[in-house]
Amino acid sequence: MRLWPKSLLGQVLLAATVAVLVAQSVSVVLLYRAAESRRDAAMLNVAALQLVRQAEQPDRSQLATAERRDRRDRLRRQTAGPRLPRPLRIEWVDNPARLSGDRRDPAREAELQQLLLAQGVPVSEVLVLERRIGDDPFIAGRPRLRERVASEGLQQREMLVAAVRRDGAGEWAVSRVPEPVAPTGVMRTILFQTIVIFLVLVSSLFFLLRRITRPLAVLTERTERFAATRQASEPLAAQGPDDIQRLIAAHNAMEARIAALIDEKDVMLGAIGHDLKTPLAALRVRIESVEDERERAKMAAGIEDITRSLDDILSLARVGKATGPAEPTDLTALVASVVEEFEDRGKPVHMIDAPRIVRPVHVTWLRRALRNLISNAVRYGDKASVSLTETEGRAILRVDDIGPGIPADRIADMLEPFTRGEASRNRATGGAGLGLTLARAIAEQHGGELVLTNLPERGLRAEIRLPSS
Question: Taking the complete model, does pTM exceed 0.85, yes or no?
Fold first, then answer.
């Protein structure tokens, strides 16, 4: 399955969609990390606040003075952020319990020590751990607290355990702050935000790109039609952005100029054909007065050679000029009729059984191309074997011979005009060098191609490959 679209519109919309998704994914990660950082800082501040309160009440009963209340209020304001569960009461122990699953956090220990020192609470040792609430021995040893934790489903939730020992004190003060519940609806908000951004961005791009791609599509269709017919029609109306309008105007001017050149060429070739064929016809009449039969035959062959070369040149010039739409044709019957023409003249040509294949073609031109390939095969390869196959939806007209083939480095040259494999200018041996060129032009006129390959054993294979209907 092809995921990458072919059109400009599809590719830009897909790129915009991917960009939105990537940007929102990065935003989600950053928001999550920021929320985690705020949560960790808030939990640490709550633990520090509880420890400061305990440190300010050495007899655990005296009320805080106004100054101490102010310090506690400042620290409480620092804990603004996520709503945190109420911390458990302070526990005094000789030595904090360390469990196998505890995860000590040196960075938090340093931060907690700084917080306490800033509040005037000197400490000699600090220990900050993370553990599951259900594993904490303080909770496990208090039935009512354990039942409350179980009823609220908090056994698997994490808890921050902060233990400090003040300078000169023998006991540790241990504060426990459960991890806050993550706020609900955040992901739904981000998802809704992503959908809104996507709809706004994609819809805006869609209407903007449609304004660009619609005239480009019309221009592409017009160019393809002109390439196939070589006939200019009414100029395209300039539409779209200024750049596209300038492109359409340039295409209209180019198309008109090319069409004018083609018309001039056709008029010129028609005049040349008329001016040359008229004296050739007169020469053909005059040679009848030559008494020497041998010389008369040579003259007639020379005139015929010039006439055929002229016909090939005019035919090559007319290939691609629209003479009507292609007609659905039984290619098997067409190939059989061409092979029969050669068989009637006693040429060593035979056809291999082929399936019935129908394609829309210009019959006269395709017949001409097939004749040229068979003539070359008979001339250079002694005999021709003609077949018709269908591969991957393409119809292939194939002509094989048993001749010497063509050197691999000369195959491309042989498709150019006036290039021959035989050095002489005698049509009986070498021809004018236009047969393969004309066959290639006819194949390309049908949207196909002419392919020449040397056979493994001996001979040359010429294929006209027509596209699927």
Answer: no
Q: 296 with 290: CB under 8 angstroms? A: yes
Q: What is the gyration radius of the CA atoms in the chain, in angstroms?
A: 46
Cβ neighbours, 10 Å, residue 463: 21
Residue-by-residue DSSP string for 127-171? EEEEEEGGG-HHHHT-HHHHHHHHHTT-TTSEEEEEEEEETT-SS
Cβ–Cβ under 8 Å, residues 395 and 462 = no
Asked whether 374 and 386 are in contact (CB, 8 A), the reply is: yes
74 three-class SS: helix
> How, if at all, do strands 123-132 and 103-104 pair?
antiparallel
Instruction: Name the DSSP letter for residue 289.
Output: G
Alpha helices in 319-457 (DSSP H): 331-344, 363-381, 411-414, 435-445
| DSSP states of 298-313 | HHHHHHHHHHHHHHHH
d(CA 192, CA 406): 68
* Phi-psi group of 328: left, alpha or beta (phi > 0 → left; psi -120 to 50 → alpha; rest → beta): beta
Residues 6 or more apart from 299 whose CB is under 8 A from it?
283, 287, 290
The span from the CA of 317 to the CA of 397, in Å, is 23
Q: State which residues of the chain have pLDDT below 50.
A: 1, 58-68, 72, 75-84, 423-430
Q: Where are the domains of the chain?
A: 8-183, 187-283, 323-466
Which pairing describes strands 103-104 and 460-466: parallel, antiparallel, or unpaired?
unpaired
Domain 323-466 grouped into CATH 3.30.565.10: yes
Residue-wise pLDDT for 290-329, tens only, equals: 888 888 888 888 887 777 777 777 776 666 555 567 889 9
Closest C-alpha to 315, from 359, 371, 387: 371
